[in-house]
Amino acid sequence: MTLSIIIVSYQTKKLLRQCLKGVYCHPPNADFEVMVVDNGSDDGTSAMVREEFPQVRLITLSRNLGYAKGSNAAIREARGKYLLFMNADIAVLADSFGRLINFMEQRPDVGLAGPQLLNPDKTIQNSAFRWYNFLTPFCRRTRLKYTKWGRRELKRFLMLEWDHRSECRVNWLMSSCVIVRRQAIEEVGVFDERYFVYLADTDLCRRLWLKHWLVVYTPAAVFIHLHHRQSAEELQLTVVHFKDWLRYIWKWRGQTPPAID
């Protein structure tokens, strides 16, 4: 099988329904499977998938185990040469999958690639990043972002000097929508389950670079990311982000990230 599309969902029934409709409206131009991991949702997600998309391989977890554990549950059962991880808030465009598969087929040195992500208004969304510095999460989550140093750090981290319209090797890519070569996963390992939501993608890309697999952003493929967060969730997500950040710096303490620029 060429492609396994993996969607980890938690309390996103409506978004997931639209996402799956998009997948089957604009399917890959190769043999594929769709796998949904319901991370302990209580909003009827599993029932919706069973009733409306019986062709989907559904994995139900008893509680929310987080992104890394949910993704790994699917990886263990996936059959594709390539694994494409996407959030339920991704909208698929015509030939989105085909262009990503073609890119990977033409670039055997690439372990992980990410498409260009657009906001609903078709502006480009930042999805490629440089490595974190120690204070980067504070620049993103606190008022430090409004200081001169904070603005400079975010410009570096978000690669704002680059227009995101050209192919580029990058330190890491946001896992909202990425394609990974199974061979690379088998070599470096699956997502580190110490992370709940954040940094699992950063960590995976770091391990790929250490094993000489390229991580590449390609605008040849385009998806829309309906990234939206309720303000009431911000504090909770900030706490999760900082906890995952502490796990990351403890794991990689004393080690310098791979230099690729």
UniProtKB/TrEMBL annotation:
Which residues does UniProt call coiled coil?
none
By its UniProt entry, which Gene3D superfamilies does this protein fall under? Spore Coat Polysaccharide Biosynthesis Protein SpsA, Chain A (3.90.550.10)
Which Pfam families does the protein's record reference?
A: Glycos_transf_2
Q: Locate the Glycosyltransferase 2-like domain: which residues?
A: 4-131
Q: What protein name does the entry list?
A: Glycosyltransferase 2-like domain-containing protein
Species in which this protein is naturally found: Candidatus Uhrbacteria bacterium RIFCSPLOWO2_02_FULL_48_12
